[in-house]
Amino acid sequence: MYPRVARELIADLGGVRARTRLRLSAFWFPLCLFGVTTTGVGLLGLAAGPDVLGWGLMVNAIVGTVAVWAWFRRRSRRIGLGGRSRSYLATAIVGTGLCAVAGMLVPTRPTDAAPWLACAGTYLVFAWLERSPPILLLAGVIAAVSFGACCVPAQPRDGVVTVVGSMVYLGTGLALRHRGTRSHLSDVGA
Questions:
Q1: Do residues 135 and 175 touch, judged by C-beta distance below 8 A?
Q2: Cβ–Cβ contacts within 10 Å for residue 172, how many?
Q3: Helix H segments across 80-159?
């Protein structure tokens, strides 16, 4: 085999791997699920106060993580592919714990900024696991929103960071869903 042909074959194989990863990835689902449910929790926190917000975020994280794990497990069985679910589940559990610890021990104003900073760190790990620039961007935007809320002179109310962060979740999830669908349709036409 000629070196040029081998290089082209390896480059084509890399493209096939990237398209396959994109089509099989379903990271859009947890982002959409958490985007919708966390928006509700944030609005509840705006109305009822920081204690309700804190407990709502914790319940949402636990129930949501279990729901996402069950969904991914069912999906992997349906399509016949097992994945690296242990690393994702471990990241979700550690991330939920970090969010809880940050919410209890790190004093910030607004109070929901610290858990969202921990959440941004968790999404950095997810971005590495998924090899996904959009999830890396998501982590950066969440961190920027959290830092920005802490640094503005007129402190936003508790729950504002949660509502804005959850909207970022939802927007990213919908964009990833559209991106995966568009990729799949372009492969069908090829």
A1: no
A2: 23
A3: 85-105, 113-130, 133-151
- Which residues does 132 contact at the CB level (< 8 Å), separation at least 6? 25, 27, 126
Are 138 and 123 in contact, with CB atoms under 8 Å apart? yes
Q: What is the pTM of this model?
A: 0.77
Q: How many domains does the chain have?
A: 1
| Distance, CA of 90 to CA of 107 (rounded, Å) | 26
Residue type at 28? Answer: W
Helix, strand or coil for residue 83?
coil
pLDDT along the chain (190 residues), means of 10: 82 75 73 93 92 91 88 78 75 90 88 91 90 89 91 84 91 83 44
In a domain, 20, yes or no: no
Q: Which residues contact 131 (CB under 8 A, 6 or more apart)?
A: 21
**Can you give the residue range of the structural domain that contains 159?**
28-173
User: 106 with 114: CB under 8 angstroms?
Assistant: yes
